[in-house]
Amino acid sequence: MQVVILCGGSGTRLWPISRTLYPKQFVKLFENESLYQKTIKRNLSFAKSFSVVINQEQYFMGLDQLDELKAPKSQFILEPVGRNTAPAIAMAAFASKPDDILLIVPSDHLIENQSAYEDAVKKAQELASQDKLVTFGIKPNYAETGYGYIEANGLEVKSFKEKPDAATAEKYVKAGNYFWNSGMFCFKAKVFLEELKAYAPDVYEQSHKTFTHARVDQSAIRLVKEDMVAIRSESIDYAVMEKSKKVNVVPADIGWSDLGSFDSLYETLPKDENGNTLSKNTIHLGSKNNLVISDDRLISTIDVEDLMIVDTRDAIVIAKKGSTQKVKDLVAEVKKHNVEMTNVHTTAHRPWGTYTILEENPGYKVKQITVRPGAKLSLQYHHHRSEHWIVVSGVATVTIDDKTFDLKQNESCYIPKEATHRLYNQQKVDLVLIEAQVGTYLGEDDIVRLQDDYKRN
């Protein structure tokens, strides 16, 4: 069986810890593991191989976290833009053999009952071998209005239901034959593609065209943006599952959560005797039932209850428990004032390492840059800014126009505006330097890449 991990989504409901370029599946919230890594570990026992469908901007983050687990080499399918789950799954199916059984799993869900999960997967695999399209229905333990529902008659799916109001959700739970729609599936590659072609032929045809035009190398299948944009954005539910006559459901009581809000995150984290989440950076006096997440700062509370306090270097959110679904609305407001704050943290991950913004004001920006051993930034220039580099530790091999030289600790160089330049760490330890940018415009899009080892545009 091949496991297909879907890594789409921007994770806005867990902002500010989750950003567009660093979504929740890669945030290490669980004993220094991410949801993406937990997904990989959960499926190692029965996965012949992994296919990871991922935004091209997050490819190296996904690759790094996979390598940390020493997991089997995986196939990455890089999306330049997202087009929902039906095209994403189609790409994985096109990349597989027709009779391969695919287990489709989101990368950002939490499943706490491993043995029950494995039992459910085995049942799904058996049904998939009989040419069924299998979905996993989560047994509801309360009336949730934030999930879609599956109405079942034994293993057969009678209907899919949209997110209900509270009264309708109560009826579903009492009826006993309704399940939460988990977004997990299992089927043969050819069966899914046949049903996609039958019920959403335009999505099938354009997805097939996009896949045949993809650039394939040893590390990834790189989809072309112009082809991808032409695909109609559609979910697998709308495109196939709600129309096909081959759909079965496997009921699953597996300790599942999609972690779609801070309220659901609170339920999963360990807590002290007063119901406050445990963290080394918090002190509570007379406080109860609070979620507190902090990057660096000490957060102290006195006599408060039922709060969500989420603190990062550049943003803090304070909300009442039960109101955190409104975070998505908050993100929309933040975008009006500072779109970068919704896209990326002050620390950003790149294929070659990381950079952290230390100071930013009109006309200048100061960063700490860390380059991993053997890594190299792109050969590039800027239209609007000059840069100063000061080495803190390690040795920097620097190219400026036609000159290449080494900089050691406490040595520096100046890169004029429009000068072609590159940074390379040839050592076996991290290179750390301070970069001071000065100019009229300091955005990350003022980078003209002439050559790049990581095939970025």
Automatic annotation (TrEMBL):
<keyword id="KW-0413">Isomerase</keyword>
<dbReference type="GO" id="GO:0016853">
    <property type="term" value="F:isomerase activity"/>
</dbReference>
<dbReference type="Pfam" id="PF00483">
    <property type="entry name" value="NTP_transferase"/>
</dbReference>
<dbReference type="InterPro" id="IPR051161">
    <property type="entry name" value="Mannose-6P_isomerase_type2"/>
</dbReference>
<dbReference type="InterPro" id="IPR001538">
    <property type="entry name" value="Man6P_isomerase-2_C"/>
</dbReference>
<feature type="domain" description="MannoseP isomerase/GMP-like beta-helix">
    <location>
        <begin position="281"/>
        <end position="333"/>
    </location>
</feature>
<keyword id="KW-0342">GTP-binding</keyword>
<feature type="domain" description="Nucleotidyl transferase">
    <location>
        <begin position="3"/>
        <end position="273"/>
    </location>
</feature>
<comment type="similarity">
    <text>Belongs to the mannose-6-phosphate isomerase type 2 family.</text>
</comment>
<dbReference type="InterPro" id="IPR014710">
    <property type="entry name" value="RmlC-like_jellyroll"/>
</dbReference>
<dbReference type="InterPro" id="IPR006375">
    <property type="entry name" value="Man1P_GuaTrfase/Man6P_Isoase"/>
</dbReference>
<dbReference type="InterPro" id="IPR011051">
    <property type="entry name" value="RmlC_Cupin_sf"/>
</dbReference>
<dbReference type="GO" id="GO:0004475">
    <property type="term" value="F:mannose-1-phosphate guanylyltransferase (GTP) activity"/>
</dbReference>
<protein>
    <recommendedName>
        <fullName>mannose-1-phosphate guanylyltransferase</fullName>
        <ecNumber>2.7.7.13</ecNumber>
    </recommendedName>
</protein>
<dbReference type="GO" id="GO:0005525">
    <property type="term" value="F:GTP binding"/>
</dbReference>
<dbReference type="GO" id="GO:0009298">
    <property type="term" value="P:GDP-mannose biosynthetic process"/>
</dbReference>
<feature type="domain" description="Mannose-6-phosphate isomerase type II C-terminal">
    <location>
        <begin position="340"/>
        <end position="452"/>
    </location>
</feature>
<dbReference type="Pfam" id="PF01050">
    <property type="entry name" value="MannoseP_isomer"/>
</dbReference>
<keyword id="KW-0808">Transferase</keyword>
<dbReference type="InterPro" id="IPR005835">
    <property type="entry name" value="NTP_transferase_dom"/>
</dbReference>
<dbReference type="InterPro" id="IPR054566">
    <property type="entry name" value="ManC/GMP-like_b-helix"/>
</dbReference>
<dbReference type="InterPro" id="IPR049577">
    <property type="entry name" value="GMPP_N"/>
</dbReference>
<keyword id="KW-0547">Nucleotide-binding</keyword>
<dbReference type="GO" id="GO:0000271">
    <property type="term" value="P:polysaccharide biosynthetic process"/>
</dbReference>
<dbReference type="InterPro" id="IPR029044">
    <property type="entry name" value="Nucleotide-diphossugar_trans"/>
</dbReference>
<dbReference type="Pfam" id="PF22640">
    <property type="entry name" value="ManC_GMP_beta-helix"/>
</dbReference>
<keyword id="KW-0548">Nucleotidyltransferase</keyword>
